Structure formats: structure tokens, C-alpha cells
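pasting input
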Amino acid sequence: MAPKKNDGSTKRIMNKGAWTAEEDRKLAEYIEIHGAKRWKTVASIAGLNRCGKSCRLRWLNYLRPNIKRGNISDDEEDLILRLHKLLGNRWSLIAGRLPGRTDNEIKNYWNSHLSKKINHKEKTLQNSRAQETATPSQKDSGTEGDEGGGGKESVNNSDVNFDVNEFFDFSAEGSYGLEWVNKFLELDEDTMNYSEKVSNIM
DNA sequence: AACGAAGTCAACCGCTAATTT
DNA sequence: GAAATTAGCGGTTGACTTCGT
């Protein structure tokens, strides 16, 4: 990327760290009037000594209307697990399918809760597999599933590659409903591979 | 009760992609 | 078409809380 220009020779010291109620109020007020865009100017005009990025993050993760906080339900958890299996660490995409949830929240939830659960699950699975090694089972090429575990990317783990973006058609607004998820989950009956899923859903 | 370890989560950072000038 | 600016993403950090000893 182009080297960042530091406009103005005098470097302003920006506020960092936790937001105060007063800052929240200013930001929310400003956005209500002017909308959520041009974050750099939001920060200065709203009288917030914060960088635009920080304002954006605060708005998206906490101040935005219809944000759900905490209490991730079992259904949501299940959905996150499945979507992560499918998409990997694409938190914003996953969040986009969970109304009211933010990418940051899901990422945190994954890192603190789910990744451990999965590790544990994998370990027990490995143990049971180890005991079964006596039986020369069918080749386990595609079976990994690799619940995302520690592994960075699980998107391409399967034998089938497909364009996730195309699959989800992210350009389509209003697809936040969960119908597509239900379709997907219905189809997620183990052996069916992704290309089959795609053609079924399309 | 005190203290250290582990867990949680809000916020920051560095980067790329997209958009504007 | 190039440069500058803005938006957005995922990874990481660090302050705070909870738990175990």
C-alpha cells in the first residue's frame, strides 16, 4: 500500500481505550443526524478525540441499533460452528448471517469458547479412532471435517472447491433471514459434498 | 484473605480492497 | 490511469474479571 501520509505536521494525540458514556452519546447523536459514513469527519465534527476507525468500530459493535449482546443461544452456537466449518475465519461473513451479532463478538466467542470445545471434541474423537485402528476402515480422505480446530483455514479442506461468495451471493440484501441456513443445515447430512449442496440450494 | 493463573472481551493495529479525486 | 482517501477485515493485545489454591 501507499505509505500512509500523516496529514498535518503536528500529530494529535488521540484518545484510546475504553469509550465513555459521553463519547458514546456524542457519536450516536452525530450518526443519527448525519449517518454512518466518513468516519474521519465523524470523529472530528462530533467532537470526539478519536480516530475514525475507532468510531466506526464502536458504532458497529455497540451503538448500532438492533445489536444483540451476550447470551449466544444453542442454535446460534450451532450455526457458528457450521458456518465456520464452511467458511473458516471469515467472521464478518459469519456475523452477517446472525442478525444482531457482530464479527468481533463472534470472533471472541469462537476464540474463547468454541475453539476449546472443538479441540476437546477432536481429542476424544482421536482417542476413539485410535482404538478403532484395528479395523482398516474406508479411506478417510474427505472425512476430516477438521472442525476448524487450531487449523487456520478449513475452507478448502474438502475435495471440492467452490466460490463461497458466489454460493452465498453476498450482494443480495435482505437475505439475512435464516431460511437459507435451514436449507443448508438440512443438507448438511454428513456425506453430501459441497457441490451437491450448492446445486441443491441453487 | 491474598495471590497468581486462566478466561473474557473491548479495542487497537496492520493490512487490503474499494471508492473518490 | 494514478494517487489519495476511506471502509472493512482478521489478528492481536491488554485491562479487567473469575477461579483455584
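fyi Confidence is low (pLDDT under 50) at residues 1-10, 137-160, 170-177, 189-202 of chain A.
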